[in-house]
Specification:
By secondary structure, the chain is an alpha/beta fold. It has a single domain, classed as 3-Layer(aba) Sandwich (Rossmann fold). It is built from twelve helices and eight strands. An eight-stranded mixed beta sheet has the order 3-4-2-5-1-6-7-8, sandwiched between helices. The longest helix is centred in the C-terminal third of the chain and has 17 residues. It is globular and about 50 Å long.
Length: 240
């Protein structure tokens, strides 16, 4: 029972894709997983699962217009999610970001793992997502701008007293990629996995089905399952 913030210092690195697909893989293995789309200004988890308009949302909870029980959506017997709103008027509401910790703590009581999809950057909403978690998993692309953002996330996590679980290098396979060993040297954190750049990920986004379900033998799906193995090793005690 642990809460993990999936974070990045730069937008567009594929953080939400990693979060959604890890949730699916771990839930298929029998672990009880809760996903929370805490990317307040750019929620996409719902779209990844094919839900364009779902009500009520995290925004309703943070604005005090819905209870925790109202916003948790069951996706399978072992996977649940709290989606954010893609409606512009939801962003205009006054949100109590500190309620995010209350929500993730509640979800932790009935989950083996809570994955919190954080906003990119270092603003107050990102800090709230980090505070609502115990561990931080940093997602980056193997390039200089993304690594620079990851360094800032590392600093933020440590300031908030949170443990860095490790790093995921997403969209790998390019000629000029920074290799994992160099990423580890720069960030002083372990690279837990690499996920290859895969056009079937983009196809799955259009389908509204996570790639591990839509294309289970694709390169990205294989890599994400391997990453899930590493998370289980580090986070979840063996079952007796």
């Amino acid at each position: 029972m642990v809460r993990v913030c999936i974070a990045s210092g730069k937008g567009g690195v594929g953080k939400s894709v990693i979060c959604a697909n890890l949730g699916v893989v771990l839930s298929e293995r029998g672990y009880r997983v809760s996903l929370v789309d805490a990317d307040i200004e750019g929620p996409t988890l719902g779209l990844l699962f094919g839900y364009e308009h779902t009500q009520p949302t995290l925004h309703d909870y943070l604005s005090g217009n819905a209870s925790a029980g109202d916003v948790v959506k069951s996706l399978s017997p072992t996977l649940s999610a709290v989606f954010g709103s893609v409606q512009l008027n939801a962003l205009l509401k006054e949100l109590e970001l500190e309620r995010l910790s209350e929500l993730t703590s509640m979800l932790e009581q009935s989950s083996d793992l809570v994955l919190v999809d954080s906003p990119p950057g270092l603003e107050e909403d990102t800090k709230a997502a980090v505070r609502a978690s115990e561990e931080v998993l940093v997602v980056l692309n193997p390039d200089i701008p993304s690594v620079a953002g990851a360094l800032k996330v590392r600093i933020l996590a440590r300031r908030e007293g949170r443990h860095i679980l490790g790093v995921v290098a997403n969209r790998t396979g390019g000629e000029y990629d920074i290799p994992p060993e160099e990423l580890e040297a720069i960030l002083e954190e372990e690279v837990l996995g690499t996920v290859r750049d895969d056009p079937l990920v983009r196809s799955s986004l259009v389908e509204g089905i996570p790639v591990v379900s839509a294309h289970p033998e694709s390169p990205a799906a294989v890599d994400i399952r391997r990453l899930a193995d590493r998370l289980v090793e580090k986070l979840i005690p063996p079952r007796r």
